[in-house]
């Protein structure tokens, strides 16, 4: 049947050409027949066609399911046994590609490493129905690479390559404000996600008060939003979205307004504070000087008292015989006289003794 179809196709092709063979030389006739043979042979072998549509590069988040599509359509002339093969293409062209899974003779065969083949299988329970897609239940970074699906049913054969990129979702970002949020001062909002596969895109939005004005130019790669001349109109809640090809996360920050203080009041307060500090310093210095002068005065007064004090009395050497006689006479006279006269006599004796010895007895 296949040979009859070849002759039919050749006759149709020659009929369309309507060429007189007598125009060709033997060499030209040979070249022409070779070209016709190649054309017809190609037309037959490409009857098996992989008809999958969609992106040739598949980006999947780590831990998610990945489906590599391989939908095929055989030709009625393809009467051979169906043979499907999935291969992980090695980046090094000098090394062999790794066969992962195959289907032949109504049986599936797994060829990969058991750790790699975890949750890897054909998507369809029966790949004979035209779906040779491959499914990976939970992708990891080891599953990233270029895959080739090859479908063969003699005499037809076709293949398709797809790239699987395993990415990490961005983590929840952190939002913060840099600046004192004072009116008229520059303020910057920052957003940063510590995890996630590049490239990461940052987008700032206002949750109230309308969209961002054109004068603001946020940095979508660094997550920075700079406001040069901050005013009360900027106050409110802002949200930051960080996203890559496999996921997105958000954070929020509240931007407040701090009115600038009165400069005249600040200057007056500063001057008053300086004057008060000077007065306190002067009072402390005066107290220190006063205390020092007082100690000096007390020290000099103590020295003067020591110089004016009389010498100590030596009673054992100062009293002579006359002193004893005077004392005896005074005692006898005291017994005879009245108290008043006795007192007068004692006073006279004291004065007489003092003039003689230079001290009070």
Task: Chart the SSEs and their pairings.
Layout: H1 2-17, H2 26-45, E1 49-50, E2 57-61, E3 66-68, E4 72-73, E5 82-89, E6 98-104, E7 107-110, E8 120-122, E9 134-136, E10 145-153, E11 156-167, E12 174-178, E13 187-192, E14 201-206, E15 224-227, E16 236-244, E17 247-255, H3 263-308, H4 315-318, H5 321-336, H6 339-357
Helix pairs in contact: 1-2, 5-6
Alpha carbon gyration radius: 59 Å
Distance separating the two termini: 170 Å
The neighbouring-strand order within the major sheet is: 2-11-10-5-6-7
Q: What is the count of DSSP helices, taking H or I runs of 4+ residues?
A: 6
How many E-type strands?
17
Mean pLDDT: 77
- Helical content (DSSP H or I, runs of 4+): 25-40%
Characteristic terms for this protein:
361 residues; alpha+beta; 6-stranded mixed β-sheet; 3-stranded antiparallel β-sheet; 6 helices; 17 strands; 27% strand
Please provide a brief summary of the model.
With 361 residues, the chain is α+β, with helices and mostly antiparallel strands. It has helices at residues 2-17, 26-45, 263-308, 315-318, 321-336, 339-357; strands at residues 49-50, 57-61, 66-68, 72-73, 82-89, 98-104, 107-110, 120-122, 134-136, 145-153, 156-167, 174-178, 187-192, 201-206, 224-227, 236-244, 247-255.
Summarize the structure in words.
The structure is a single chain. By secondary structure, the chain is an alpha+beta fold. It has helices at residues 2-17, 26-45, 263-308, 315-318, 321-336, 339-357, and strands at 49-50, 57-61, 66-68, 72-73, 82-89, 98-104, 107-110, 120-122, 134-136, 145-153, 156-167, 174-178, 187-192, 201-206, 224-227, 236-244, 247-255. A six-stranded mixed β-sheet has the order 2-11-10-5-6-7, with no helix packed on it. The N and C termini lie far apart (170 Å).
């Amino acid at each position: 049947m296949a040979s009859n179809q070849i002759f039919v196709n050749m006759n149709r092709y020659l009929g369309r050409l309507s060429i007189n063979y007598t125009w060709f030389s033997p060499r030209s006739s040979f070249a022409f027949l070779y070209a016709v043979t190649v054309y017809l042979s190609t037309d037959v072998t490409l009857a098996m066609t992989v008809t999958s549509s969609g992106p040739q590069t598949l980006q999947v988040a780590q831990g998610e399911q990945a489906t590599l599509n391989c939908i095929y359509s055989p030709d009625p002339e393809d009467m051979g046994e169906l043979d499907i093969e999935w291969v992980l293409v090695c980046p090094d062209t000098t090394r062999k590609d790794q066969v992962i899974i195959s289907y032949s003779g109504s049986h599936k065969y797994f060829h990969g490493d058991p750790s790699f083949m975890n949750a890897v299988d054909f998507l369809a329970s029966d790949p004979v129905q035209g779906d040779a897609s491959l499914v990976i239940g939970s992708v990891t970074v080891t599953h990233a690479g270029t895959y080739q699906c090859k479908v063969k049913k003699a005499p037809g054969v076709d293949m398709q390559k797809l790239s699987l990129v395993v990415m990490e979702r961005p983590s929840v970002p952190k939002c913060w404000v840099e600046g004192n949020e004072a009116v008229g001062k520059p303020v910057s909002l920052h957003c940063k996600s510590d995890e996630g596969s590049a490239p990461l895109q940052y987008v700032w939005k206002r949750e109230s008060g309308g969209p961002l004005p054109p004068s603001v130019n946020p940095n979508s790669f660094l997550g920075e939003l700079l406001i040069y001349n901050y005013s009360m109109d900027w106050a409110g809640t802002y949200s930051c979205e960080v996203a890559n090809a496999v996921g997105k996360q958000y954070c929020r920050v509240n931007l407040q307004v701090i009115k600038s203080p009165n400069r005249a009041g600040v200057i007056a307060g500063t001057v008053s504070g300086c004057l008060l500090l000077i007065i306190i310093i002067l009072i402390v210095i005066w107290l220190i000087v006063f205390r020092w002068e007082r100690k000096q005065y007390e020290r000099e007064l103590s020295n003067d008292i020591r110089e004016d004090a009389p010498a100590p009395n030596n009673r054992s050497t100062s009293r002579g015989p006359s002193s004893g006689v005077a004392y005896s006479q005074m005692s006898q006279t005291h017994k005879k006289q009245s108290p008043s006269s006795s007192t007068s006599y004692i006073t006279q004796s004291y004065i007489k003794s003092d003039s003689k010895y230079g001290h009070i007895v």
